[in-house]
Amino acid sequence: MSASKIHEDQKYIDGLAQNNSFVIQAIYEKFAPKVIGYVCKNSGDREQAQDLVQEVLLVIYDQAKTKNLQLTCPFDAYFFLLCKRKWLNILKKSSLNEVTINEEIVSANEPVQEPVLETEHFETQQSLYEKMFQKLGDVCKELLTKSFQMDSMEEVAKALNVTYGYARKKKSLCIGKLTKMIQESPVYQNLKT
Amino acid sequence: MEDRDYILFEDYLTQSLTETERNAFEKRLDEDTAFREAFELYKETSAFLEHKFSDTTERDAFKENLSKISSTHSVETKAPSKKIRLLHPWKLAVAASIVVIVGVFYAQWFTTPVYQDFADYPQISLTVRGESNQIKAEAENAFNAQNYQDALPLFKSLLETEPENTEIQLYLAVSLVEENAFAEADSLFDTLLKEPSAYLNLARWYASLSKLKQKEYAETEAILRLIPEEAEEYPQAQKLLKKLK
Q1: Is it the case that residue B84 has pLDDT exceeding 60?
Q2: Distance CA B5, CA B28 (A)
Q3: CA distance readout (Å), A186 to A132, A135, A182, A191, B192
Q4: pLDDT tens-place string over residues A127-177
């Protein structure tokens, strides 16, 4: 982490992580119109644009919360490029309608690319983790859910009617199993490269 | 990795190892790449689960807030023109007088336009549902009552907490124009016109009115020409441009 290069727009990231209504409002006022304009010009409508904005803000929130996201470029460019690339992906997936993309020049300078790719990487990672979690057996799913919801492993053991030692051991084995499934997935291999 | 490795990972993360065990663990992290990679993933997966399960309430609150703001935002951007029309019943009176004094009006058509003919500021709404902000409510009331002198300090104090709020900056600029504090108003407009925002065209329109009030007609014209055809302010901008010629 290069602490020296944090952009002053980090305030938007912090505000999102704190669920600060003023900051969210400011993002909607200052940055969302450009995204909405872009989506509407490129085969989408207002409603789809609003959904896109919400999705992207949620990913940023998740990344800020779990990975302590630090912004090294202006929020405007970062946010717009994230939305734009996500929208193009959505269009690609639903290529039912012929798509007209009025490409505009985005400041494709390095400082923006990197954080954008990082956030996209993060999002792919999270959805892979989620998918693999859903594939775990019911015993592991229940135990992990309780382990992270409850305050202590003693409580978890009590709730599941098992010994403390067993609950602890099982927790690490379940996470271990999950990591194994993640490691074996081709998506993980792609992410690594 | 073996089962005992995962147990070791958990013990290390929960700081349940003895010092000797910990040192041995860290040494292995240094030397064994596969072990290190597996441990990093174990840590990440734990962080993911932590966020997924223990921060659910927080995350749900964020999502809810997001959709609330998103919906008020889309309403705000869709409806303003209607709102403005409803709030000015006196326009009817103006229309009626125009019929009566049509001759005078006709003569005026050829004279230089004046600020008062165009400065028609809509009622503003700053307070958001579910939020109580005394200063916002007072600022809103003062502005809507055209009591700009009182509105000025209120807007300024709001900007102290939210310096980036374009909407409030814009209303502050308008109030400054109304109070003839042109230097301050124009420097604020300068900043507003430089950055893209939802209020950009509205800011251009109000900035041109500021110049009009100062009788700087060339500048008025230059700013008006920046308002694009698709903007809501375009018709009134064209009307004023026509009169300036």
Answers
A1: no
A2: 11
A3: 12, 15, 9, 9, 49
A4: 999 999 999 999 999 999 999 999 899 999 999 999 999 999 999 999 999
Residue A193 has pLDDT above 70, yes or no: yes
| Chain B residues touching A24 at Cβ < 8 A | 65-66, 69
Could you tell me the pLDDT band of residue B58, with boundaries at 50, 70 and 90?
A: confident
CB < 8 Å to B49, chain A: 133, 144, 147-148, 175
A170 touches chain B (CB under 8 A): no
pLDDT value of residue B80: 44
Please report where in the chains the tokens 């998918």 appear, as a residue.
A131
Contact A25, A12 (CB under 8 A): no
Which of B11, B45, B161 is opposite residue A182, by nearest beta carbon? B45
**Cβ atoms of B133 and A22 closer than 8 Å:** no
Instruction: Please compute, for residue B25, the number of CA atoms within 13 A of its CA located in the half-sphere on the CB side.
Output: 19
Cα of A90 to nearest chain B Cα, Å: 20
Distance CA(B186)–CA(B226), nearest Å, equals: 16
Q: Find the residue in A nearest to B7 (Cα).
A: A172
Q: Where are the alpha helices (DSSP H) in chain A?
A: 10-17, 21-30, 32-41, 46-67, 75-93, 110-135, 138-149, 153-160, 164-184, 186-192
**HEC letters along B97-126:** HHHHCHHHHHHHHCCCCCHHHHCCCCCCCC
Nearest in space to B65 (alpha carbons), one of A3, A15, A91: A15
Q: Alpha-carbon distance B5 to A173, whole Å? A: 9
B226, B206 Cβ separation under 8 angstroms: no
Q: So what's the pLDDT on residue A174?
A: 97
User: Tokens 């051991």 label which residue?
Assistant: A169
Specify the DSSP class assigned to residue A136. S
Helix (H, G, I), strand (E, B) or coil at B161: helix
Global model pTM greater than 0.90: no
Q: Is A183 on the interface with B (CB under 8 A)?
A: yes
Look at residue A151 and give its three-state secondary structure: coil
Asked if A50 has any chain B CB less than 8 Å from its own CB, the reply is: yes
* Contact present, B60 and A61 (Cβ < 8 Å): no
Give the integer Cα–Cα distance in Å for B120 and B122: 7
ipTM of the shown complex: 0.86
Spatial CA neighbour of A140 closest among B194, B240, B186, B45: B45
Task: Evaluate whether A36 touches A27 at the Cβ level (below 8 Å).
Answer: no
Q: Which two tokens stand for residue A115?
A: 């954080």
Q: Rounded to an integer, what is the distance from CA B116 to the centroid of its chain?
A: 27
